[in-house]
Amino acid sequence: MRRFLRKISRNSRSPEDGIFFEKLAKILGFDPKDLKYYRKAFTHRSSNKLDENGIPFNYERLEFLGDAMLGSVIAAHLYNEVPGGDEGYLTKMRSKIVSREHLNELGRDFNLVGFVESKVNSSQFGENIHGNLFEAFIGAIYLDRGYTYCEKFLRTKIIKQYVDIAQLEGKVISYKSLIIEWCQKEKMPFSFDFVEDNGIEGQKYFGVKLHIDHKVISKARATSKKKAEEKASQRAYFALQEKISKK
Amino acid sequence: MRRFLRKISRNSRSPEDGIFFEKLAKILGFDPKDLKYYRKAFTHRSSNKLDENGIPFNYERLEFLGDAMLGSVIAAHLYNEVPGGDEGYLTKMRSKIVSREHLNELGRDFNLVGFVESKVNSSQFGENIHGNLFEAFIGAIYLDRGYTYCEKFLRTKIIKQYVDIAQLEGKVISYKSLIIEWCQKEKMPFSFDFVEDNGIEGQKYFGVKLHIDHKVISKARATSKKKAEEKASQRAYFALQEKISKK
Q1: B127 is in an annotated binding site
Q2: Most buried in the list A214, B3, B186, B195, measured by CB within 10 Å?
Q3: B34-45: per-residue pLDDT in tens?
Q4: What residue in A sits closest to B76 (Cα-Cα)?
């Protein structure tokens, strides 16, 4: 029944909206309700758009909102996850998680810049566009589906996959070396196989598949081979965590 | 039925917990579920308490959490309330709302320091204890009842009564003068009547009742007569807002 309703509601959309909807649903892990918030989240200042009241609209206000939501979801996560961390520790860890560099990585990984409509070529936006779009996207999720869904998205798509407290604390230097060490101990063959990835908008990307024991265990994509290897290793580490920690 | 269940659950508490519960419910506007979070929110570092795992516990971690929740609720409020404000404006307004001075005022008004168990005399805590306790209290509400209730408390008990965007913008200098002006225009008698208020813990407070047309329109309590008058005037202004703006 839900699927049926979903199909009807999808069919009532323009083809363009339908594609946007599908892409968003894939990133979110749930259906967006009102696309207008996401359109705003991907509207650059250079588009000079005005809303129905003549107020300029772009994603900058949503950045403010998304930043606040991100701050509170991460705060709650750290509070629960690190019962022994005092106020200073929690504050420091949160700054690391929501650092400009990290937010840029997230925006880039979701390729949010691909949604932007603007009169400027996106290569002129500068590096921080990725993080800004990511924050605005979080703001749009909050307006569209409320705090609970915003938190759900951040927990399942961000925290689970990107927030690694041990690594942030500097306890884990390289997941690649942990994986290699484990494979050697277990006498299992492994290889990092690079795949061509032309990326978008001229930005060069490297894709990598990590094979362990002749099976693909994880994939990753990043702006350098080294980063892609480390990311794939981290994912493999979490996938294999139970096995690895048992040894 | 709900009342009945509530009564049963209340009767199962110790007398001490029962009093704490009633006091909290009065401040919150809804029932707390688990008192332990609030006990923690009112535990000062000087108590040297340890939890069941031997980790020192006091309200400092909850301050971090409450600060984050406060930040996101206020961000959403400003985003919706000031559609024409850009990112810089929103950021500035939020800082004013969550300023140390303002948080101290809130903590003081709710008399949160009255809940603190500590080995130090509370007069030694310094002024910021009030704001710190207020933040910790917000953190406790979040842990106890979740984001929705935390937001509900902040909207009904804080934003509605304390957050006045016009005043923060400096557009309204004095509510007392607005009230006096309106009373004179309407030819209505008014008076500020001070009541004795010995406060707690040696801090001197002034209570005031604002009578307009021989009726008590609002009351307030503050550390100076001037502040109490202004606060009572602000409350009267909001109570009479429809009438005032019609003229």
Answers
A1: no
A2: B186
A3: 999 999 999 988
A4: A65
Dihedral angle computed from the Cα positions of residues A38, A39, A43 and A49, in that order, rounded to the nearest 10 degrees: -140
* Contacts of range A104-112, beta carbons closer than 8 Å, 24 or more positions apart: A104/A128, A104/A130, A104/A131, A104/A134, A105/A130, A105/A162, A106/A130, A106/A131, A106/A134, A106/A158, A106/A162, A107/A131, A107/A132, A107/A133, A107/A134, A107/A137, A108/A223, A109/A221, A110/A27, A110/A134, A110/A137, A111/A200, A112/A42, A112/A137
Three-class secondary structure of residue B89 per DSSP: helix
Whether A142 and chain B come into contact, CB under 8 Å, resolves to yes
Residue pLDDT, tens place only, A56-93: 788 999 999 999 999 999 999 999 998 888 898 999 99
pLDDT in tens, A180-214: 888 888 888 999 998 876 655 566 788 899 999 99
C-alpha span between B237 and B244 (Å, rounded): 8
On whether the B2-168 domain is CATH 1.10.1520.10, my answer is: yes
Considering chain B, tell me which residue range(s) the CATH 3.30.160.20 domain(s) occupy: 175-246
Residues of A carrying an active site annotation:
67, 135
Mean pLDDT of chain B: 86
> What tokens were used for B151?
């937001």
Q: How far is A65 from chain B (nearest CA, A)?
A: 6
Q: What pLDDT, on a 0 to 100 scale, did the predictor assign at position A40?
A: 94
Residue pair A159/A184 in contact by the 8 Å Cβ criterion: no
CATH for the stretch A175-246:
3.30.160.20
Distances from the Cα of B142 to the Cα of A54, B24, B41, B69, B79, angstroms? 38, 14, 11, 8, 21
Confidence class for position B154, pLDDT limits 50, 70, 90: very high
Q: Which two tokens stand for residue B213?
A: 């047309």
How far apart CA B7 and CA A60 sit, in angstroms, is 50
